[in-house]
Amino acid sequence: MLQPKKSKYRKEFRGKNKGKASRGNELAFAEFGLKAMTGGWLSAREIEAARKKITFATKRIGRYWIKVFPHKPITKKPVGVKMGSGKGAIEGYVAVVRPGTILFELGGVTEEMARTAFDKAAHKLSVKTSFVKK
């Protein structure tokens, strides 16, 4: 699964996720893309599951690009621990996604194949998505 090799700080604040994507909102490498219509957090597990579905659906024809990376560490305290005594341990990493962000790009395949691949991948993601083409 994806996670950063190194980070400046081990734990981060939750932060705000307001507004639309101003960067990464247009196709850069390929003809077809999967665009987020709602904002939220995509976990590293979700991204990996979607990546596997795209690979399987395209039968490894063409090329795909993952345009999001899980940089943000998410913490969680164990079950049954009382309130207080600091922040919990890191449970995993998430990618912060705003509406309009291109999540995946796919090239070298037919439009029909790209649509089916992205449709299957979208089932694995926690944000609403749409299919876009150049």
CATH class type of the domain at 39-77 and 89-133: Alpha Beta
Q: Please compute the radius of gyration using only Cα atoms.
A: 16 Å
Helix content: 10-25%
Q: What is the structural class?
A: alpha+beta
Q: Main beta sheet: strand number and arrangement?
A: 4 strands, antiparallel
Write down the CATH topology of the domain at 39-77 and 89-133: Aldehyde Oxidoreductase, domain 3
User: What is the number of E strands?
Assistant: 7
Beta-strand content bin: 25-35%
Instruction: List the secondary-structure elements in sequence, H or E.
Output: EEHEEEEHE
Low-confidence segments, ≥5 residues, pLDDT <50?
A: none
Distance between the termini: 30 Å
Q: Tell the overall outline.
A: elongated
- If you average the pLDDT, what whole number results? 96
Q: What does this protein look like?
A:
The protein starts with 31 loop residues before the first strand and ends with a strand. It is 20% helix and 28% strand. It is elongated and about 55 Å long. The model has no long low-confidence stretch (mean pLDDT 96). It contains 2 helices and 7 strands; from the N terminus they run ββαββββαβ. The protein has a domain at 39-77 and 89-133: Alpha-Beta Complex (Aldehyde Oxidoreductase, domain 3), CATH 3.90.1170. The protein has a 4-stranded antiparallel sheet with strand order 3-6-1-7, with helices on one face. It has a 3-stranded antiparallel sheet with strand order 2-5-4. It has helices spanning 44-58, 111-122; strands at residues 32-36, 40-43, 63-66, 72-76, 89-97, 102-107, 129-133. By secondary structure, it is α+β, with helices and mostly antiparallel strands.
